[in-house]
Amino acid sequence: MLEEKKHFFRDQLLDWYQPEDRPLPWKNDKNTYAIWVSEIMLQQTRTDQVRPYYQRFFKYFPDLQSLAEANEDTVLHFWQGMGYYNRARNLLKAAKHIYFEFEGRYPEDYHAWIGIPGVGPYTAAAITSFSYNQPNAVLDGNVFRVLSRYFGVNTPIDSQEGKKLFQELSYQLLDKNNPGLYNQAIMDFGATVCKARNPKCEICPFQQNCTAILEDKVAFYPVKQKRTQKKKVKLYYLHLTDGKRVFIKKRSTSGIWPGLYEFPDFESRAKMIGDLQLLFPKEKIKLKKTADLRHQLTHRDIKAIIYQCHLNTTDLEKKKDWLLVETENLTNFAFHQLMKKYFRIFNH
DNA sequence: ATCCAGGATC
DNA sequence: GATCCTGGAT
């Protein structure tokens, strides 16, 4: 009975799948490089958001060599606003490894790909099935959702047991003759029909067999056990300018927004003033609050308070790791979304 | 305003 | 098990 249900699932899924129904830029790029780059971008990121980034990135870095020879600032510049910036740094590190150490030869199988920075179980399965047609089953959020609903699996997907169970199930279901096509099919199905919210059960080809539909518990799946709670954090940013130039600094490569640029930040308004007084005469320092922004990360709830301080050209000196940049040249630097949000508001 | 989806790393 | 981001749904 269960075997029958599995076979039915695979056959129906492949029957349903029409690749051209969901055209994506990277689907036409059949080479390993393009597949790898797109899969890294697609980690934790929706296709609609990736699309414009992928096109700009690919135009500028059309092959392994062009990426391997790039520097981190340039790669982050193309990545700015897309989030999870260690993906970009790992991608560059990996490109240099493959190009310079492996003489441009890509890893040959799943386990070799796992050894590449930024490539985990999902990405290794995606690359080796799409590019080499090797029989590795992808296990991403779509697959967890589709399988948990169809088979009515209520083991939490974020438990060790759940990961193992779903990995085995998805491997059994995989069409070993056409793993790339099958993997693409199940993820497209999850993204367009068996969606997390507002699933299109009324047009679903599995209506008669899906456990979740039959039990009227579609929204119950997939089952998860833990959710992270957010800590509240306050950040004080200094918008220090003479009207034509502005100070920015680069964030460290650990912690949030690694390697991205932003205004100098402080723990408190008092520390900001204290630092300013070391550099400029007290009477010239006038702070004006120009923004109060909220920004949410996975487990941080950031309240960013931005103060503007106008000083004369002659007053501005270079300090430690601060960079004095012409306002019109700000576009040369990679900023995170909180800064971009501020620029948008401020330029109005 | 709050909640949530989506993989890798150490 | 904690830490990395953003945008979209509600």
List keywords for this structure.
348 residues; alpha+beta; Endonuclease III, domain 1; Nucleoside Triphosphate Pyrophosphohydrolase; four-stranded mixed sheet; three-stranded antiparallel sheet; DNA-binding
State the share of residues found in helices, binned by percent.
Answer: 40-55%
Annotated CATH topology of the largest domain:
Endonuclease III, domain 1
Structural class: alpha+beta
Indicate the CATH architecture of the largest domain.
Orthogonal Bundle
Order of helices and strands: HHHHHHHHHHHHEEEEHEEEH
Please report the number of helical segments.
14
Global geometry = elongated
Describe the structure.
This protein is α+β, with helices and mostly antiparallel strands. It folds into 2 domains: about 1-220, Hypothetical protein, domain 2 (Endonuclease III, domain 1, Orthogonal Bundle), CATH 1.10.340.30; about 230-345, Nucleoside Triphosphate Pyrophosphohydrolase, CATH 3.90.79. Helix content is about 45%, strand content about 15%. It has a 4-stranded mixed β-sheet with strand order 4-1-6-5. It has a 3-stranded antiparallel β-sheet with strand order 3-2-7, with no helix packed on it. The N and C termini lie far apart (about 65 Å). It binds a DNA duplex (10 and 10 nucleotides) through helix 6, helix 8 and strand 5.
Topology record:
Layout: H1 2-16, H2 32-42, H3 47-60, H4 64-68, H5 72-79, H6 86-101, H7 110-114, H8 121-132, H9 141-151, H10 160-173, H11 179-192, H12 211-214, E1 231-241, E2 245-250, E3 261-262, E4 265-266, H13 269-279, E5 287-296, E6 300-310, E7 323-326, H14 337-346
Parallel strand pairs: 1-6
Antiparallel strand pairs: 1-4, 2-3, 2-7, 5-6
This protein binds a DNA duplex (10 and 10 nucleotides) through helix 6, helix 8 and strand 5.
